[in-house]
Specification:
Largest sheet: 2 strands, antiparallel
Number of helices: 21
Distance between the termini: 38 Å
Structural class: mainly alpha
Number of strands: 2
Oligomer: single chain
Order of helices and strands: HHHHHHEEHHHHHHHHHHHHHHH
Length: 485
């Protein structure tokens, strides 16, 4: 077994690492089921809890995502990949329990106040830090431990886990809600709302707590399991632990291949770290722009607001359509998983960009026209599916493997931080941009928004064609030699 290497050992390690991706999806999507009950609970404060406060509360985890991704490079370089992931798991676990019961230690349960609202948001930011760390370090970990011939496929499983985590939490929220119903929120003007008298009190007092608390189970499992996986051989080589690095490489690749890989790693890791710009600005620019385009193409405007969009299309049951769209997303993510090593990274990204452009421009031209409702829905699904086999997983693959070993921690941190910043920009700008009207009822915002996303998709295709190197079949050490040239 040692001569050949153990595939089952490799896959068991990757399986544990992708639970971090599942938690990423779980944490970012749990708010979708809990937000109405949460809103009704804090509205007991009175007029202080406005739409603005609710918008901030729903998106506060993104602040933590930016922080977590920003510090991921420092932690990955100083603590190692494994310890950084353990820390991320602890953040997920604390956030789940704290968000479920924010009154613990300081407040009386069931009595909302501004202080309690701030504490709740702090717990959500803590969870966001876990998401930011996992989003940067899970692909890095998988990329550094996987053999080059299947690295793209294994890193792609991380994106599958993210999408799967979102679907899991939708289902968990559905089970928790059970016979109960979400509260009815009525606007009374000027960004102030009231809870309808016939709203279900259970969802206001208890339901949202169970939804947030449910994350503690996968978070606890991840934190325990990650303790049993090895550190990555590339990090061990960087800190001079060559014997440990070779032992792990031998178990994954076989003893003969392990010596070759370790020699290759040592030839490119002359120092523990190098200055960020050692390999030129283009290297960093490519990583940052991959992250920017992954968000600027507008996908989160679909993932976060799908029920609203399908309702605005005039569909009778937008939630059913949203679930169907989720199944399509999972299916096309699997397309990437099983073709990335055959077709390469660049062809999938360029094809996906053009498919998204067609879908987005199709939505722009058909939205609001009742006779073209079906074509509009299909266009939106083409747009979403094209992202799922391209920019969704492949961006993470490239970010995990495009940077040289000695600057990977810092470079990945910067790239992923830009991803979360643009996630926030797209998520917060979509609704106001979508609702722009030059004259009452003209629907200007509808075609402008998706027209803009379509144009960005075309620019993204040109960027990949001209500037992004193909990494299929290359070792991580090959990337160091490429950028040195």
């Amino acid at each position: 077994m040692e001569k050949q290497g153990s595939k089952s050992y490799l896959f068991s390690i990757v399986l544990v690492a992708v639970i971090g991706g599942l938690l990423f999806g779980y944490d970012t999507a749990v708010i979708s089921g809990a937000e109405k009950g949460l809103q009704a609970f804090f509205m007991k404060m009175g007029s202080m809890y406005t739409d603005t406060w609710h918008g901030f509360t729903c998106s506060s985890a993104l602040i933590g995502c930016v922080i977590g991704s920003g510090i991921s490079g420092m932690l990955a370089s100083n603590w190692g990949r494994k310890k950084s992931l353990i820390f991320a798991g602890v953040m997920f676990f604390l956030s789940a329990l704290g968000s479920m019961y924010p009154e613990a230690l300081f407040f009386e349960k069931g009595e909302p106040s501004m202080s309690l609202l701030i504490v709740f948001n702090i717990y959500r930011v803590i969870g966001g830090i876990g998401v930011g760390l996992a989003s940067a370090i899970c692909p890095m970990y998988i990329g550094e431990i996987a053999p080059s011939n299947i690295r793209g496929m294994l890193v792609s499983w991380n994106q599958f886990a993210i999408i799967f985590g979102q679907l899991v939490v939708y289902f968990v929220n559905f089970l928790i809600l059970g016979e109960h119903t979400n509260p009815i929120i009525e606007s009374i003007g000027q960004g102030i709302n009231q809870v309808a008298a016939n709203s279900d009190p259970w969802t206001i007092e208890t339901g949202w707590r169970y939804m947030f608390g449910s994350e503690a189970i996968p978070a606890g499992l991840f934190t325990i399991l990650i303790c049993f996986v090895p550190e990555t051989p590339r990090y061990l080589a960087m800190i001079g632990q060559d014997a440990k690095a070779e032992a792990i490489l031998a178990r994954i690749n076989g003893s003969v291949k392990a010596k070759e890989i370790l020699n290759d790693i040592k030839n490119t890791v002359s120092e523990k770290t190098e200055k960020l710009m050692t390999y030129g600005w283009v290297c960093i620019f490519v990583g940052i722009m991959l992250s920017v385009f992954q968000q600027a193409v507008g996908i989160n405007a679909v993932l976060y607001y799908a029920p609203r969009i399908y309702a605005d299309m005039g569909l009778n049951d937008p939630m059913v359509t949203t679930v169907f769209n989720g199944v399509v997303n999972i299916t096309f993510t699997l397309v990437a998983v099983f073709t990335v090593e055959k077709l390469g990274r660049k062809p999938l990204l360029i094809t996906g960009s053009l498919g998204m452009a067609i879908g987005a421009l199709g939505v722009a031209m058909t939205f609001g026209n009742p006779s073209l409702q079906l074509l509009c829905m299909i266009s939106l699904m083409v747009y979403s599916a094209s992202f799922m086999f391209s920019w969704g997983p492949i961006c993470w693959v490239l970010i995990a493997e495009v940077f040289p070993n000695t600057i990977r921690g810092a470079a990945v941190a910067i790239a992923v931080a830009f991803q979360w910043i643009f996630n926030w920009i797209v998520s917060t700008s979509f609704v106001p941009m979508f609702n722009i009207e030059l004259t009452p009822g003209d629907g200007f915002g509808h075609w402008f928004t998706y027209g803009l996303y379509g144009v960005i998709c075309i620019i993204a295709a040109v960027f990949v064609w001209k500037m992004v190197p193909e990494t299929k079949g290359k070792t991580l050490e090959d990337m160091t030699r490429m950028w040195k040239k």
